[in-house]
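Inputs:
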Amino acid sequence: MSRVSRSDQTVIRVEGLEHTYDGKAFALKGVGFEVKKGEVFGLLGKNGAGKSTLIKILTTLIRPTEGTVTILGMEPSKDGPKIRKRIGVVQQDESFDFTTVQGNFDIYGVLWNVPKEERVRRREELLKRFGLEDIRKKRAFDLSGGQKRRVQVAREMMHDVDILFLDEPTVGLDVIMRRQLLDFVREDVKKGLTVVFTTHNLEEADYLCDRVAVIDSGRILVMDTVDNLKNMYKGKKTIELTVESSGAERFYERLATTLGTQANLKRESESAAVLSDNPKETLAAILGVAKETGAQIEWLSVRKDTLEDVFIDSVSRENVG
Amino acid sequence: MAYPNLLKLVYRNIKVNTDYGTLIILIGLPAMYLVFFGYGFQSIVSGEGPGNSYLPFLTPGIMAFQTVMAGTVGGSMLWADRRYGMLAQLLVGPFTRLQYLLGIMLTAVMFGFAGAAVMLVGAYLLIGTVSIGFVGALVIIVAILAGSIFFGSLMLVLSALLKSNNAYNSVQVLIIFVVNFASTVFYPLSPKLPVALQVLFDINPLTYVANVVRDGYSGAVAVGDAYQIAGLVAVTLVFLFLAVRSYMRSGVSFS
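Outputs:
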């Protein structure tokens, strides 16, 4: 179920998008999706999956090699400045002027043509809302990682935007700070803001997004609402295990053969995650292979379907394919 | 009231770059040259400038030198904005790449004029009298304008090409030193200098800025100044083109 009431108006349309930095390796390949007004659209992928490249194209910072992009009914190649007037962007890297927190807000307000009285009102409201009042006189570069991130997100709200792009805004934040930041964004989403949000954190995508696109090696592997994606995996369970290193190679080779197509095995060194429709049978197979190969299972757990399973499943299927 | 983007960017540049550190470099260093060199060399220099005093000779030189300092600040703006993410942030805002570049250039020009004016005031306090005519003021303005744009362009090329902090600072210090002392800022071009140094003086645009400002300051504007200005403008246009080209081709950040 969508967390907010969305309109049917499409604010972002991407078709056949491809991008290469060196003319050879594709950073993005055949990417296409639509985002409706008031929607929180998540781009979920590991580091280097192509999320930031996609954000750079959507925010008009770079031009795609192929494909069409429409933002708020306008094409970035023709109407870049007009589009940029209506979007806000919190980039992955920190970006501050060499001045105080308050100074950063004020300068941003001027750059975005916010009238003086309104500028002061918004600044004070945002400083309060984001808990930045006590550090308003501190220089932005002297702040902690969490404070900097809050300033970056809050600063973007100094001006009116139709679409807010958040490129991994929670990197480096602790759990509490991360949740606070997401809550700040959710408050504005309730007022109708459209958000495009990139992350490699599955819990965040689950918490914030209406729809999620799993992206890997520049391609969208799966895309749906968070609830639909989870429903696709209803009844499935993930068995996570770690095997003692000396017998791991033989164990996993044998396990892969034994499971066949019955379950989806994703291995990383001595650990693995097995997504299965029939966890009882899979568990029995795992224990059987362990006994047969003499491998020692150091750790084993069974958990219910989460968005993480969607991610692991789609990425590992892609890698196998 | 909606201000043009260029003015908003200039406002931001001034606001961000008027911290104590920048002001000391921009105003303090040339002012120290004026005071220490002005008084220090006074006793051994005679026959240069009006009233046979070194200070009236040095003052227009230091005014010209302000164009180098202004250019340095301009280059540092681009370098810092690329290094600390603000260039990418501004370019996803309502600004074009060209507006950003013009914003830096206009700020450098303003810093050049402000610095030259401060030196003029300083000279008045030290010498007790400054008299510049209309034509003199006009050629000074043109020379400071062209000089600021030239050195702004030169530093922008550097900041577009260099990615390491150490490399940028080292090259900048080297350029400032050579440009400053291989020019007529502190002393006239003497035929007794080694030929290599004379050539360095001749190809250094600061020499022409200093010469023209000095002639404007001392009321000795002649046809030769028009040629010097023409040459200066031509070189400035070439470097402005190179600055725009290298900036447009450079990435918005180092990451």
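Remarks. The mean pLDDT of chain B is 88. The radius of gyration of chain B is 18 Å.
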